[in-house]
Amino acid sequence: MVLTILNAVKRVLVGRPFRNDRMAHTLLPKRIALPIFASDALSSVAYAPDEILLTLALAGVSAVTISPLVGLAVMVVLLTVVASYRQNVHAYPSGGGDYEIANENLGKFAGLTVASALLVDYVLTVAVSMSSAATYLTTAIPSLHGQQAMIATIGVVVLALVNLRGIKEAGSVFAVPTYIFMASILGMTLVGIFQAVTGQLGQAPSAAFTIVPAPGFDEGLVGLAGAFLLLRAFSSGAAALTGVEAISNGVPNFQKPKSKNAATTLLLLGIIASAMLAGIIYLANATKVHIVLDPATEFLLNGRPLPEGYIQNPAISQIAQTIFGAGSIPFYIVVAATGVILVFASNTAFNGFPVLGSILAQDGYLPRQLRTRGDRLAFSNGVLALAAGALVLILSFNADVTKLIQLYIVGVFISFTASQLGMVRHWGRELKLAKDKAVRRRMIKSRTINMIGFGMTALVLVIVLITKFEQGAWIALLAMFVLFLIMWSIRAHYDNVAKELAVDEDSSPRALPTRVHAVLLVSHVRKPVLRALAYARASRPSRLDAITVDINAEETAHTLADWEKLEIPVPLTILASPYRETVTPIMDYIKNMRRDSPRDLIVVYIPEYVVGKWWEQLVHNQTALRIKTRLHFEPGVMVASVPWQLKSSEEAKRLQDIQ
Amino acid sequence: MVLTILNAVKRVLVGRPFRNDRMAHTLLPKRIALPIFASDALSSVAYAPDEILLTLALAGVSAVTISPLVGLAVMVVLLTVVASYRQNVHAYPSGGGDYEIANENLGKFAGLTVASALLVDYVLTVAVSMSSAATYLTTAIPSLHGQQAMIATIGVVVLALVNLRGIKEAGSVFAVPTYIFMASILGMTLVGIFQAVTGQLGQAPSAAFTIVPAPGFDEGLVGLAGAFLLLRAFSSGAAALTGVEAISNGVPNFQKPKSKNAATTLLLLGIIASAMLAGIIYLANATKVHIVLDPATEFLLNGRPLPEGYIQNPAISQIAQTIFGAGSIPFYIVVAATGVILVFASNTAFNGFPVLGSILAQDGYLPRQLRTRGDRLAFSNGVLALAAGALVLILSFNADVTKLIQLYIVGVFISFTASQLGMVRHWGRELKLAKDKAVRRRMIKSRTINMIGFGMTALVLVIVLITKFEQGAWIALLAMFVLFLIMWSIRAHYDNVAKELAVDEDSSPRALPTRVHAVLLVSHVRKPVLRALAYARASRPSRLDAITVDINAEETAHTLADWEKLEIPVPLTILASPYRETVTPIMDYIKNMRRDSPRDLIVVYIPEYVVGKWWEQLVHNQTALRIKTRLHFEPGVMVASVPWQLKSSEEAKRLQDIQ
């Protein structure tokens, strides 16, 4: 069976399921929790500064010098969001993700909106981070330039396979490279500052280029257009905030005191991320890194366009080149650490996405069978869905980070905003119950912080929507809307079914069918039929009929002869089949039976072959399957499958059992 | 369910099944039978003469003048084969196809070889005829030139749809165009002869071109290479024989006396086909039609290559142009009639392929459920398989008739040869039994004819294999080999299963399981569960257990409370699930039960939702399906599906019922 193969493949790729109680062993100290939860947030310095620079560059060289201001604005938002989420962590020590907070405090509608936004944003995290990682790889190995989409594709596929195999216990694996990344970026910043102070800081490779402003920006950043561009630069820079919420989902994984440790880690994360962002933007300005959307048309060197084949490297790479020298060992360390951290950032999505999926399944928004978190089914389906979504994006946008960024962030800020509003409500409700003055004061303070957080994130959300809608955010919003509708429909369906099936006064658990009428389907007289006959008789029905359909006169005579030779104490009824067809005569027979005695229970015994190979399934049981499907539509009819295990099924059973 | 949609689509496309007894109404008089069975054989004059001409042209203009000789050889073979099949028709009035004759007289191995060859050749008939039809369409509408592959693809798809819908009773539809085709080709020949006699016959458009011989053929048709080329031309011309065997399959469809009428029709077919072939080749020579493989390199006009864009039309089209004038009405009639007859030729394959498939299924070489000829299942699967195969060939070879011809015919001659050898054996066996002198004399005469037929077809088969193997026949042979292996394996599998399942002395039809132990699977306490409970209790098992798996403590408590509230007289057992997984705890419970009382029958009652839409299937029953699959591997366990018809299933039931 196909299932057997799939299961065997799954066993190799996925490994065994975890026990519930194993969860307890994975409690994390802060020094491990930080790198695990930080990679997503920290990795955004690999592309966020570039997006700020190239957006501003549309208004010419002088506009680029405003980038520190934009960076400052991003930092302010970042620290505000961190402060807000520290309140979430204290209020929901069980790990209230944005979905749960919105769902609980703002209702189903808001909850599902946040869930859709988060699902889409997980997909974008993978697409953006992997595309950016591919760019860093081409920075280190220039001959790969132009192959970013392929590299990112391979990256996603490998990461998906690794996750299907299971890497839960790899916490320490995450720690080392994340710390190397932090050290290399912060170290580079310190060396850069030292060089600047001592007057040794060089100029970036792109410092000599002049920038041709886009049409309408000849005057620089002025007027409404200038303000709009500034907001656009800010929106793109806000990509630095993605992943900040990760810690709030992970509180239960912290060592005790969970909330306190999580809040401290969150604060650390905010400080480090801000410092790195500030460092990169400072160095980009100090070394005059120029980054534009399209180097061929926007750059001039001595008044003439650049020669063909100029490759624009990301800011971090240009800075490292300036400070340490191209091809130096520290340069490669910085670039490699950045690439690795981006892959890790993608990986956090591979952990978060299936977990959110199982929570949604638990709430009836996704198929129920995905709901058990411990089960690998939800996990592997989630991994596959996430990888597929990311691959579609990477291939559609040719792994172009700048284009993908336009889709990003809108989802993040939808969930930020909803979550903060939810928290404001949460504190309001708590305040009604709290009596203790000190507690009330703490709550009021938290509520104030969350209010500020809500205002700030709502403002950013509006800015992001205005500046990015046309640029691509509409695609992300459309995807969220579709996901929302699908999940809403699934839930509505489950609710309807639950209502339809609810036990009411009509349904008496004591009313039994008057009689049981058993029907045995016979094709050839072989062992499986005899077993089915034995089972049918063992169930002592009120009446037992054996029936066979006459398709081929010779075969039917043979069957009848065999039946009589065995002296079976049940008569064999032969059904005529004018169309030489199997299913319809049987259905007609059963329907007649139902008409004659509608209060009886009819049990149809079908002998079935249990086979071991997928192709055997194609050559057996097909007619049985069609009969079963049809019988299922008849009320008052129960189908009893009597399996006969063919020898070939033994290996398949073994595979099933070790599963 | 997907099945529902597919069935609805199928109903619209395919229509209702036929009754067995409707067969009797379709007995055919000779004047209808001839066009129905003749289109395949007659249509080959649309391409066979071209293949002879272009193969000979490799040795230059003078070699082309030998084409009447090659044509004569093909005619001799054609008439010999016709004479031989007239014997088949008399010996097997029940419609002994080549497969049955080979199977019965030469054994399973030969039979299956012939079957594989025929299946492959049906696919090639469609590919070659449709590609040729597309060429004729571009002859009439030159602006379509270069689009043959697309035209042929559309043709195959439309023909497949038409056949899925059913066109059984379209006998008379076939008659008119076939007669028009015969009349137009034979009429054109007469007009051409008249023009030649009166000195009015013009020169073909390609008459002025000189042909550049291929390397090694500067001397013309001499030496071994020349002989080989001659044989290759003959092999390609032998394509004219395909379809001759069609009448021998169709004897039961003739009016009485069936055999005599069929034999007469076969003779008529042979005479008409020979006359048409002779006419076309004569006219091609008289008007100096020059056809080559590659006009750009092989043609010279006044010593220089042709201007780009020369379109080489088939011989019939060039002849019609010469005799009637380009763009004249008779020209269009000839070209259109040829195109239509080629489509009809493809259609014969769409009738023959599924019938052969159902015969093979009856003999256990294909999945059993395809065996009933009356059922549309076999028919529609056959149509789809044939269309898919033809499309692969058309697209792989870009609808190039000359390339496709290289794959063709080898299969036809394999079945001709095997069939004739089978007939020789048949007469030998009959002769042993026959006493009457006149009868014996007739049999000896028949055997002699079949011997000559065997010798002739075997010789042609060897020639075809030698001259075409490298050109593409190996692909056809490989496909036959693969088909042979698949069908052989299916049969071997069925034989093994029959042996494994045969009733022996150990299998007593009276031994019953000691006790019946019923297990009811409970998830929520809803109506379906209560129905399953009622059915389980109505079957009066020796013992009845209800079990539920504890995945979520809250839900389990809820279920238990509901259960107790209803005062159900069966205790509910709660199974722990350390992995929060549903299937494994149930399997463990059942296995324990089996270990405790191995001689009991365990009946597992599973409530199932019957849904109406395919996506509902995705959100329901998935866990039940997994449990059922696992339970099937346990001996002594029977699964009873208790269906609960959701409201949404009503429309699906209605669709199933009208089916």
TrEMBL record, chains A, B:
It is a multi-pass membrane protein. One of its GO terms (molecular function) is transmembrane transporter activity. The chain crosses the membrane at residues 52-85, 106-128, 148-167, 179-201, 265-284, 331-356, 377-399, 405-427, 448-466, 472-490. Gene3D superfamilies: Amino acid/polyamine transporter I (1.20.1740.10). Its main location: membrane. It comes from the Bacteria. Keywords: Membrane, Transmembrane, Transmembrane helix. It holds the Pfam family AA_permease_2. One of its GO terms (cellular component) is membrane. It is found in: Membrane. This is Amino acid transporter.
